[in-house]
Design brief:
Layout: E1 11-13, H1 28-51, H2 58-86, E2 91-93, H3 94-127, H4 132-135, H5 138-156, H6 158-164, H7 181-185, H8 193-226, H9 231-239, H10 242-264, H11 270-295, H12 297-311
Antiparallel strand pairs: 1-2
Helix pairs in contact: 1-2, 1-11, 1-12, 2-3, 2-11, 3-5, 3-6, 3-8, 3-10, 10-11, 11-12
Amino acid sequence: MALFNVSHPTVFLLTGIPGLEGTQKWLAGPLCMMYTMALGGNTMILLAVWGESRLHAPMYYFLSMLSFSDVVMSLATLPTVFRTFCLNSRAILFDACLAQMFLIHSFSLMESGILLAMSFDRYVAICNPLRYASVLTNQVIAGIGLAVIARSFTTLFPLPFLIKRLPICRSNVLSHSYCLHPDMMKLACADISVNIIYGMFVLTSTFGLDFLFIILSYVLILHSVLAIASHEGRLKALNTCVSHICAVLIFYIPLIGVSTVHRFCKHAPWYVHVLMSNMYLFVPPVLNPIIYSAKTKEIRRSIVLMFHRLCM
């Protein structure tokens, strides 16, 4: 156990999967494969959009923002997950843990904002296609991107300070192989009401509102699609939304699940908490590039051309 100073431990100890410490090294292979898929897949999409002029369009700009967010999210968790599962090195400095916590939460919020922006892109493309180019100009897209970044960092900027003000003296053992705000605040031997209230405020005013606006955009999209006379036209319009709908589901379902488990299922077995948190962090970065590569012909073609150029 690490020594404690007046207000907090010098280090936290990370945890892999409780009860399976002896077999955690067997998970190194699948974890490395997941990180390779997440980093490799999202990097390919970034390179494809950057290098192919045909993909210099609003939909693909937003997709590249989503891929960049997934890359940073994966890189933020990679060092501690790899050390915990592969090297059995569990210690992380207090300030490094705060930095990792901030990156994980801020880029998760950024991904939520990007998914909302992508739903707006689909709304304009389907409901007002004649004004698509004039509404979603490069300046508007850049402004949306900057607004998403600014909202993420300003909203979550207080989190490290809310943790740092707490005297943490119950333990220095965290429940995951990375640092999360709910996990860290539970180790405090002081009133954590402010942390709980602020966490709920962030969850409802950002993730919650984003999800509601995404649902609203698809209600409007569905209304416009049903007004299309031909069956083929309706299917074609809806098919342009399939990738985004899948991305929304694989992001928000684990998020809702982990939030529900943390707040309302406190007596559930701890491996349930760990499993839900890992799904929330690992599933979207791994599946997003697969979904968009499989469902978007232009992305798939650009990736093939990119590999063709490399092999020549």
